[in-house]
Design goal:
4-stranded mixed sheet, Peroxidase, domain 1, elongated, 8 helices, single chain, 178 residues, alpha+beta
Length: 178
Amino acid sequence: MAELTTLARPYAKAVFDAAKDHDSVDAWDQALAFAGQVAADKEIRRILNNPGLSEQRKAELFVDCFEQALPEALRNFLLILAENKRLVLLPEVSALFTLFRADLERTVRLEVSSAFEMTEEQQKKLVDALSRKLERKIDLETSVDQSLIGGAIVRTGDLVIDASVRGKLAKMAKALGS
C-alpha cells in the first residue's frame, strides 16, 4: 500500500495544485472521490489490470462509468493516468487529494469510538480541546463500541489515542506477562 501511495503522490499533488489555482478544490475532491470508488471496484480493477486492453481503451471504459459528461480537465487527467498505466492509483490519488485539502483548510477528521454514546456537551469539550491542541478545525465522527468497556479511542490518520478500559487492561496484562 505504501508503494501505491508513493506512486500516487506526484499525481495527487499536481492535480491538487491545479485545482487550487482554478479555485475548484471542492469539485475536484468530489470527482476524485467518485473516480476512486469506481477504480476500487473489483470488476473495474480487473479491467484496469487486463493486459489485453490498450491504455486508451481502459480510459474510455473508465470514463463510460460516469453518468454525466466529465469536465475536460478531469477527462485529461484520466487520460494522463491511463497513458502512464496508473488508473489503478485513483483510490490513493483521491485519498491524498483529500489530505492535501484538509491541510490547506487546516481541518482534521477525528474518529472517536467510545464505550457509550457521547453527549453533545462531551463531544463539544473533546472538539474544543483537540482543536486547541492540534491547531485545526475538527470534523468529528463518533461511534459506540461496547467492547471498550469504558473510555474511548481517538483516531486521526496515523495517530491513535487509546484511553479505553480495554486498552488499559491489555497494557496491564502485557506488563504482568513480561
